[in-house]
Design a protein that fits this description.
Elements lengths: L20 H4 L4 H14 L3 H15 L5 H11 L11 H27 L3 H17 L3 H12 L5 H18 L2 H14 L5 H17 L3 H8 L16 H15 L2 H9 L2 H7 L3 H11 L4 H14 L2 H18 L7 H10 L1
Helix pairs in contact: 2-3, 3-4, 5-6, 6-7, 7-8, 8-9, 8-10, 9-10, 10-11, 11-12, 12-14, 12-15, 12-17, 13-15, 16-17
Length: 342
């Protein structure tokens, strides 16, 4: 969303803030590794780059994903020393176990299909999808998860399989599938748990965000359930929800909507507590504080902020937020006067 020049900053968090790479990667599973590699690719601070690559290397060795292992080794380019080099013995061992596991799982699927046992077919296909997912074969995992949906015999099984399809679709960047299966899951049951509803709202919001439909994304983010909290960190953290939801609301809501859906929304305020800068921008906009100071804050954050600030704020600043800061008929001389008084 930002230009190539904007995607790299002198430091990932600003000159005055110490940057803890491990503390920043507050995710689970493959998403944590993806974030670490993102930091290593985008951050121009060599120490932070090496910290991210070192941690990613160790995390990947706890998985079965040899493709990611090769990628991180290529990115380190020998800069971390021989102990962070290509581990061919580990790769060969993983590949051997994968070949054996694939044969066993295919046998399980065939046996269940021969017996026409729907629940057995569903479990076997879901296990096959999990197997491919753990090895980083995301397209194959997606295919098995989708196939398993056809053999679900309970609402709970259906919802769980839809959530797996959504997870791998997000990683593949296939957001049309994310939106489709989130909608299907919402309609599949009348008794979804608050946690499941939160996950589905989050998935829909991310799909809208990817499509730059900021108001629709904001509406989903601000509906977020308290139950979600830190229980969907294989996809997002509370900081992400506060950042994305707050900026989408600032980009698309008028002041009445900001009050009703954001400022007076106790649950979403909990997420904004993780990003006080976003909360303050929303309050400044609502209270008609001078547009110059808000623009300056956005620009400062775009240049010096963390990666999600640099990409999202870079896009919003140029296309959405800044044009709206010429406040509703407010005269230019009034704005200059307000600035001079402050």
């Amino acid at each position: 969303m930002a230009s190539e020049d904007d995607s790299v900053a002198p430091s990932p968090s600003g000159d005055s803030e110490p940057f803890n790479v491990e503390g920043y990667a507050r995710y689970r599973g493959r998403t944590m590794i993806s974030r670490l590699l993102f930091i290593a690719e985008r951050c121009s601070d060599p120490e932070s780059q090496m910290d991210a690559l070192r941690l990613a290397y160790m995390k990947i060795k706890r998985t079965e994903d040899t493709q990611l292992h090769r990628r991180v080794v290529k990115m380190t380019n020998g800069r971390l020393g021989p102990e962070y080099g290509l581990d061919q013995a580990w790769i060969d061992d993983v590949d051997r176990r994968m070949a054996h596991g694939k044969d066993e799982l295919q046998k399980d699927v065939s046996d269940a299909q021969y017996r026409l046992y729907e629940e057995g077919i569903r479990r076997a296909l879901a296990d096959f999808g999990d197997f491919y997912y753990s090895h980083g074969h995301l397209a194959d995992a997606f295919e098995k998860y989708v196939q398993s949906c056809d053999y679900c015999t309970t609402e709970d099984n259906t919802i769980q399989m839809y959530l797996r399809v959504i997870l791998v679709s997000i990683e593949l960047g296939q957001f049309s599938y994310v939106s489709h299966y989130a909608d299907k899951a919402m309609k599949a049951s009348c008794s979804l748990s608050p946690l499941t509803v939160g996950k589905l709202l989050c998935a829909s919001a991310l799909a809208y965000l990817h499509g730059k439909e900021y108001k629709l994304a904001a509406c989903k983010f601000v509906e977020m359930r308290r139950a979600l909290g830190i229980r969907y960190t294989e996809v997002v953290t509370p900081l992400d929800i506060g950042t994305y939801g707050g900026l989408c609301a600032l980009a698309s809501f008028d002041r009445t909507e900001l009050v009703k859906k954001v400022i007076d929304n106790g649950v979403f305020q909990n997420y904004l507590e993780f990003v006080p800068q976003v909360r303050e921008l929303i309050i400044d906009f609502h209270e008609r504080r001078n547009s110059y100071s808000i623009k300056s804050t956005l620009e400062k954050r775009r240049k010096r902020g963390r990666s999600e600030w640099r990409t999202l704020v870079g896009d919003f600043s140029s296309a959405n937020v800044l044009p709206r800061l010429d406040f509703h008929g407010e005269k230019e001389e009034d704005r200059r006067q307000e600035c001079s008084e402050q």
